Amino acid sequence: MNAKPEQISWHERARALEFRTQAFIGGRYLDAASGATFDSINPATGKLLARVASGDKEDINRAVTSARAAFRKGGWANLKPAKRKRIMLGFAELILKHSEELALLETLDMGKPISNSLKGDVPGAARCVQWYAEAIDKVYDEVAPTGPGALALITREPLGVVGAIVPWNYPLLMAAWKFAPVLASGNSFVLKPSEKSPLTALKVAELAVEAGIPPGVFNVVPGLGQTAGKALALHMDVDCIAFTGSTATGRMIMQYAGQSNLKRVSLECGGKSPNIVMADYPDLDKAATAAAHAIFDNQGEVCSAGSRLLLQEGIKDAVLEKVQAIARTMQPGDPLDAATLSGAIVDEAQMKRVLGYIEAGRNDGASIRFGGRRVREDSGGYFIEPTVFEGVKPTMAIAREEIFGPVLSAITFKTVDEAIEIANDVIYGLVSAIWTRDITTAHRVARALRAGTVYINCYDADDLTVPFGGVKQSGIGRDKSLHALEKYTELKTTWIDLS
Ligand code: NAD
After folding, report:
1. DSSP assignment, residue 332?
2. Tell me, what CATH number does 410's domain have?
3. Cβ contacts of 325 within 8 Å, gap of 6 or more
């Protein structure tokens, strides 16, 4: 990476940008077998960006066949770990070398601010590839304590062909959380990116092959969920589906596995995460700042968004005033302006969905303290102001359902037990947070919250070394950390008789 985002003329770059729009199968770009395409729309302008190959059963079949053949050939799966590591480190370098192009593709395709794509998503994806590359030759297998009469080896083997189906909110990063551990474990890979944001996936596949990953190991089939996604999840020769997306789709993915070959399924689904602030927390400004970023960053299109702010009685106004002050600085702007902090909502349908929830909140009797409107309509794009609801009751739709937009629901409570009760009373359990100076309260709440992650006196702290994922209907399995390798490998026991 070289220039700072503000030194680059992004609009000019965008005009010169070329898109990869075909499926990537067996190391080559190909049209969909049917010749069909779907439109990729720039959510900041409402205008057509590109026509992208719309893959279906036949394309998925080609990709899986190619992935299986590459796996059988062993050019990747049987490579010495140190060699696989070197190739993956080269792949990460190529991602970094193409940072500006990838960041631009991401921003044009899904509407997030260019500074975020350039400083967050793209280097985050490269780091993820580096981290799993570094792990490859440091993970050992086991010898079981069977006693002197036998030698029992417990080894981990790649599964074979892993399919991934990913969403549009962090298109490249969510894909990287899958392909980095999948490739590190020696599997072949077929990616179905979201039809709302396929462009970075199509570019990165080319970089994988350029880095030396054998053709057929890394395939990308763009297409709709109902066609390409379903075909991948139903395929009889796919060993595992790693899914990130909504809980509703996650439910279907499990059914497809049951209807086909009982493939392994991991699900990273939705959330409605509670962010609890106790009155004893000494730095309410800090808690409020984190609360604002927890819901307004990435236009609120974040699975772990702190969409429910639970405030102990007496501190509501102090916290919400600060949240509101930050919201004011995060008004949506042109995603290609390096100073923009909030961009466009991914498409018109999602914008309408978010506005529908804002309407429902009003109708249910909550009051809007800040925001609540569509803005920048003249641009032709889909922008919504950061929005803060107060007077929210835990029974309201805006307190229970995932909105996936910049809408915060503030709920007040009296006692810590009441906060725990409200926090746990949703179908989700992705992340949660508690702000308090009392160590007993902190640990008691951390134990009681049903969530994959509990933050204490912080929100959205993040590192590749820690697992990420949910409980309840937020999902099954974990991304990131060495634990992710468990999802993409199978245990084998080899028993040798020494008697
Ligand atoms: P979505 O479920 O609509 O789509 C996700 C993916 O599934 C897309 O690629 C889509 O094409 C595909 N799909 C849709 N229907 C399908 C079907 N019938 N069969 C197979 N595939 C199908 O979700 P979305 O709107 O793209 O993403 C937003 C959701 O993702 C939110 O719920 C968010 O919380 C969740 N998410 C979770 C995490 C996490 O780590 N837990 C991370 C990011 C996003």
Report:
1. B
2. 3.40.309.10
3. none
pLDDT at 2: 63
- With a Cβ cut-off of 6 Å, ligand 1 is lined by 165-169, 174, 192, 194-195, 225-226, 229-230, 233, 244-246, 249, 252, 268-271, 303, 402, 404, 430, 470, 475
Phi first, then psi: give them for residue 82, nearest 5 degrees: -65, -35
Catalytic residue among 206, 240, 303, 402: 303
Q: In what helix (H) or strand (E) does residue 133 lie, and over which residues does it extend?
A: helix 122-135
Instruction: State whether the Cα torsion 238-242-244-247 is positive or negative.
Output: positive
Ligand 1 atom showing the smallest separation from residue 468 Cα: 40
- pLDDT tens profile 135-184: 999 999 999 999 999 999 999 999 999 999 999 999 999 999 999 999 99
Domain co-membership, 114 together with 207: yes
Question: What domain count does the chain have?
Answer: 2
Domain span at 446: 274-463
- Which is the catalytic residue, given 206, 268, 385, 402? 268
pLDDT, tens digit (0-9, with 9 covering 90-100), for 352-399? 999 999 999 999 999 999 999 999 999 999 999 999 999 999 999 999
Give the contacts of 129 (CB within 8 A, at least 6 positions apart). Answer: 88, 89, 91, 92, 95, 176, 179, 180
The residues, any chain, with a CB within 8 Å of residue 336's CB and separated by 6 or more, are 10, 11, 14, 44, 107, 108, 114
Summarised one tens digit per residue, pLDDT across range 457-475 is 999 999 999 999 999 999 9
